[in-house]
Each structure stands twice: as C-alpha cells, then as structure tokens.
Specification:
Length: 313
C-alpha cells in the first residue's frame, strides 16, 4: 500500500500521545500522505495505553499495541514494524524530539528512490555534557569496531518496505535497531535534524540504564572485545618472556631477583587479567544462552482493532 506507517515506541508518555498523534495527523493530511500511526506502549504504567485507545477510537488510522511488560525501545520498534502495512515505514520518538517537518522531507526523499533515510542529529538539544560525551564515546567505539559510521546516529529513520521485511527476517532475539539498519546496507540518504526539546514528560534513561544498554549492544553487535582477551594474553606473554630472561641472567650472575615483591606483582597482574578475560567471555556466554533459549522478543497483551473498512480508502 502506498503510504507511510509511523512506528512510535512509547514508555510512560501519557501527556505526549494526544499531542504527537494530532500533530502527525494534521501534518500528514495537509501533505496528502496516506498514513497509519502505530503506537507501541512498552509496558507503560501511567495510563499511556488508555490514551492510545482513545486516539484509536477517534482516528481509524491509529493502531495501538501494549506489551505485557517493559521490553525496551528496540523491541517496541520491531513490534511496530511487524504491524506496519505501508510501503514506507518510519520510526520516531513520541516526545516530539524528532521533528515532524523532517519526517515529511524524509518521505519525499524516499519517494525519489532512497531505501533508507536516516535522521542524523545536528544539535543534541538539552542533553547534558556527560550524556553527550558518553554517547559520543560509545558510538565512537562502536563505529570503529563495526567499521560503520554510527556517530550522530539515531533511531529516527524511514525505511522502504524491502528494508523492513529484511530486518524482520533477522532471527536473533537481541536486536539493536541502529546497528542492524547500518549493517543492512541499502541506498541511504541522511537528513540532518535539530533535536528539539522534549515537549512533555522526562527522558527514560538514567546512567546505569545507558551503560547497560551500551554494553549489551556492543556484545550483541561485535566480537571485538573477545580479541582484547587474546591481545591481553599476548602482552602478558611478552612480559613473562622479558621477566624470565632477566631473572635467568640475574641468576647466572649469582644475584637472584628480590623474590617476594616480584612474585606478588606478577601474580596480581596475571590474576586480574584472567578474571577480566573470564568476565568478557562470560558476558558473551550469557548472550549466547539468551539467544539459544529463543524466547520471543516481546509479548503483546493488548491491541486495538484495525478498522478494515477505512483502510481500503
Ligand atoms: N522508550 C521505550 N521504551 C523504553 C524507553 C523509552 O519505548 O524502555 C521510548 C520513549 O517513550 C520515547 C523514545 O523511546 O518515545 C525515546 O525515549 P527518551 O525520550 O526517554 O530517550 P532520549 O530522547 O532521552 O534518548
Ligand atoms: Mg527523547
């Protein structure tokens, strides 16, 4: 179907639902773009679902899903994509930080033959210094590790139907939307947008959740940290050769090395290197375990009805 599906993950965004829904409706109707809005409530507990239901009652182009608990933004994005029926599928936050004007220009670019239109942050809005540095550092490492340009990446994207279908085919449970869509390739166009201030509510991230998110996604996406283990082992090996030769020379010169301190140092260094390596390997093992259990990515507890009649128009 020619048109635009907009996937909107929402976690405790009660105030935002009516605002963004009306804003998108107004703008897309004005632009004569045929559309559907898919709100995915990610286990919200503040009445977000009731708001979504109300919007769906008023406007048959609004579809709502509710997760049985909080599964994270990426799961919400994939659940929304699985329901999308239009030829172009856009993902945007529902706090109006992703401007609707940019969405419209993304759609126009898609009409001219781009398969993925990516929103790239031009100005990171009111994020504080540490968050900005932290996010920058995380994407820098990720970009290096993946040899993909991820800095200034965001989840604000518009994808062609074939891209969406190929993403939905990916079998892994833990999906990192930003990474996956960079990995997928396709003809891309980037659009810069200014990150607006959040219109209402507050950011769902805190420090620990961001760090956990960073680690999880690095592990889900690359095995480079496992090579750190090998490199660490090599460095320890070189050190041990040097120290061995030195000790032997001293021994044959008749003056053995001062024993206790050296042994203690070597033991501590090797011990911690081994523990850290085991930790890294363990983290990957945990991920493998998560994947082989093959649990579903999300569970849907409620869904609004599609009004089939309207859709034919
Ligand atoms: N979100 C979600 N599940 C979560 C956390 C966030 O679906 O567990 C949604 C949230 O409702 C919003 C979007 O993801 O639409 C971005 O979240 P937020 O604005 O808190 O992040 P920030 O813009 O600060 O990066
Ligand atoms: Mg936001």
């Amino acid at each position: 179907m020619k048109g635009l599906s907009v996937v909107l993950p929402a976690y405790n965004e009660r105030e935002m639902i009516p605002i963004i829904s009306r804003e998108l409706t107004r703008r897309l109707e004005q632009e004569k773009i045929s559309y559907e809005l898919i709100f995915v409530s990610d286990g919200s507990s503040d009445g977000t679902w009731e708001e979504i239901e109300r919007e769906a009652d008023e406007n048959s182009r609004v579809l709502g899903l509710e997760f049985s608990r909080n599964f994270g933004k990426d799961s919400a994005i994939f659940a929304g994509m699985a329901q999308a029926r239009m030829d172009a599928v856009a993902v945007m936050d529902c706090d109006l930080q992703h401007p609707v004007d940019t969405l419209v220009s993304m759609y126009r670019i898609w009409e001219n033959g781009s398969e993925i239109v990516e929103g790239v942050k031009a100005y990171r809005g009111e994020e504080n210094f540490f968050y900005r540095k932290g996010a920058g550092w995380f994407y820098h490492i990720l970009s290096r590790a993946l040899k993909l340009d991820m800095e200034d990446a965001s989840d604000f994207k518009l994808m062609d139907r074939k891209v969406v279908d190929s993403l939905l085919k990916m079998p892994e449970r833990h999906l990192f939307f930003r990474g996956i869509s960079a990995w997928a390739g396709y003809r891309k166009t980037q659009v810069k947008y200014e990150v607006a201030e959040r219109a209402a509510g507050k950011s769902k991230w805190n420090w620990s959740s961001l760090i956990a998110y960073g680690f999880q996604n690095i592990v889900a996406f690359t095995t480079v940290p496992l090579q750190f283990v090998t490199v660490g082992g090599l460095i320890c090996f070189l050190g041990s050769v040097a120290l061995g030769i030195y000790s032997l020379i001293r021994y044959f010169q008749g003056q053995a090395v001062e024993g206790y301190t050296t042994i203690l140092m070597v033991l501590l260094i090797i011990g911690s290197a081994i523990m850290i390596s085991l930790g890294i390997i363990g983290f990957y093992m945990g991920k493998i375990y998560d994947e082989v259990r093959r649990r579903p990515r999300y569970l849907i507890s409620r869904m609004t009805h599609r009004q089939e009649k309207e859709e034919k128009t």
